[in-house]
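Hi both,

Apologies for the delay on this - the queue was longer than expected. I finally got the coenzyme A-bound model through. Below you'll find the protein sequence and the ligand SMILES exactly as submitted, and right after that the structure tokens for the full complex including the ligand.
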Amino acid sequence: MNFKKTIKEIVINNHFFLSIISLIYSLPSRLRIKGWCKNDILINGAFLKQTKIEFKGKNNILLIAPENRLTNCKIRIIGNNCKIKIEKHCKLTNLELWAEDDKSEIKIGFRTTIEGGHLASTEGHLIKIGADCMFSHAVIIRNGDSHSIFNELTNQRINFAQDVHICNHVWLGEGVKVLKGSMVEEGAIVATGAIVSGKVDKNSIFAGIPAKIVKDNIRWRRERKMPDDITHTI
Ligand SMILES: CC(C)(COP(=O)(O)OP(=O)(O)OC[C@H]1O[C@@H](n2cnc3c(N)ncnc32)[C@H](O)[C@@H]1OP(=O)(O)O)[C@@H](O)C(=O)NCCC(=O)NCCS
């Protein structure tokens, strides 16, 4: 058996080893955590490289589950009672995660991978990303507009934040933007450069601005090679 693989298995299956090794690996990032007092940071067993964490406010929670890998990420919580939760086995690179205001939340599901981008949660709303999602570079997801718009006759605000929900096994192509109130259903693909501001149907491909359906009844896999039981038709 491969020596490197055996060591890796021992570390992963032993919580104590995992905590120590991840602590040593993540030490330079941990030393850069700003404003941690009055906030809860649970990052034991996660591997952080060149990652910056900053808090302004209190009662915020940052939970990065064990066996996650974050490289060159910036996590910024500015507000109170906000929560960022990253479930196990995610791989996040070049990503900014922002939670601002009161009770804003970001949740990223098990085994999701993100190559880069910006996720911004504001006004006490949620960005929920399911398990096994695959996001490319420069993906932007926001559940609010960061500034207010009013009707000039009634003086009422017209652009409140709304939750964004991305279900399990969703593929967002390079440069995709997902705006407030959007829902991307399970198994869907959003094509490169698209802007989603509404619903993307299950097992379909949406493309363009605003994103519209271009194909339905599709399935996707991370592997380029097709399994033998799937017929090739060209
Ligand atoms: C989503 C994607 C994978 C779909 O590929 P596909 O199933 O082969 O789709 P097709 O090329 O057959 O395109 C289907 C239709 O959608 C249109 N379309 C595809 N991508 C589009 C895009 N990004 N914007 C606008 N229209 C697009 C095509 O013009 C075509 O329209 P038509 O039927 O009128 O001719 C592909 O379009 C894409 O975005 N690839 C890049 C993925 C990426 O970012 N990878 C980075 C690593 S994760």
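Main takeaway for now: Residues 136, 173-174, 189, 191-194, 205, 207-208, 214-215 surround coenzyme A (CB under 6 Å).

I'll put the files on the shared drive as well.

H.
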